[in-house]
Amino acid sequence: MDLQRLYSVAGKTVLITGGVGGIGRMLSEGYAAAGARVLITSRKADALQETLIALRAHGADAEGCVADLATNEGVHEVIAWMKSNTPSLDVLINNAGATWGAPFGEFPSKAWEPVMHVNVQAPFELAQGLLPLLEAAASRENPARIINIGSVYGATTDVLTAYSYTASKAAIHQITRVLAHELAAKHILCNAVAPGLFPSKMTKFLLSETYKDSILAGIPLHRPGTPEDIVGLMMFLSSRASAYITGAIIPIDGGILIAH
Fold it and tell me: In CATH, what is the architecture of 3-255?
């Protein structure tokens, strides 16, 4: 058995939405280092350009598209861009995310639509619109993949007043299962990962001196996640090694879900 080939993603075409910061940047760098062709999106042109320059400096085959996935136009722009740039897509990673925090009594109605659009509707419509590219890459022996980035906050009640965020992550977990069933016959696997605390712009306040000790105390492994943690799992889910797994929601949280 060739274990190196079993876990390889070399030569695969991978789309990572929100691929310029936090977990998205970790994944962009990880797939590039593994020899994949990395296609990334961002709503910020300057951040996208900086990321592409950094990836290409290490010899990566990397391209990017500026698009705001909080809008229908942004989703359609990504689909059109992909269809003009590649005949097939091995791995679609729906990573772009949005959140909103406010106390229960003050949580506004405007906190729902943009969060649900980015975290649920956009991943669904990207899977829908990019289906021909995924089908072109898929085979019984080497399925194509859709991997949705969910969250432990889609499975716990300790949600730090981010009500629309937790609802959206529970929804993307369920959409993952539904699409896994829908697309299995087309040799397209659909799984989700549910990260706990990883360093990012979204979680920066949790790792500040004010909250860090109490937050880490609630994680059985007493540390945030690292790039190696998330990249290792995603390499597995994108490689031949996981070709018999679909519809799974995999926590990567240092034990948060067993503690709450």
Answer: 3-Layer(aba) Sandwich (3.40)
Contacts of 233 (CB under 8 A, 6+ apart): 193, 250, 252
For residue 155, pLDDT over 70 is answered with: yes
Query: Looking up tokens 């590219």, which residue turns up?
Result: 133
For residue 193, the cross-strand partners are: 149, 250
Q: pLDDT value at position 238?
A: 98
Residue 125 phi/psi, 5-degree rounding, is: -70, -30
Euclidean distance between CA atoms 113 and 195, whole angstroms: 23
- Decide which of 160 and 109 is more confident: 109
**Among candidate residues 49, 70, 60, the one with its CA nearest the CA of residue 78:** 70
**Domain boundaries in the chain?**
3-255
CB atoms within 10 A of CB 51: 24
- Point out the catalytic residue in the list 7, 163, 165, 211: 165
Dihedral angle, C-alpha 189, 202, 195, 113, nearest 10 °: -50
Q: Residue 211 — pLDDT band, cuts 50, 70, 90? A: low
Active site residue 165: yes
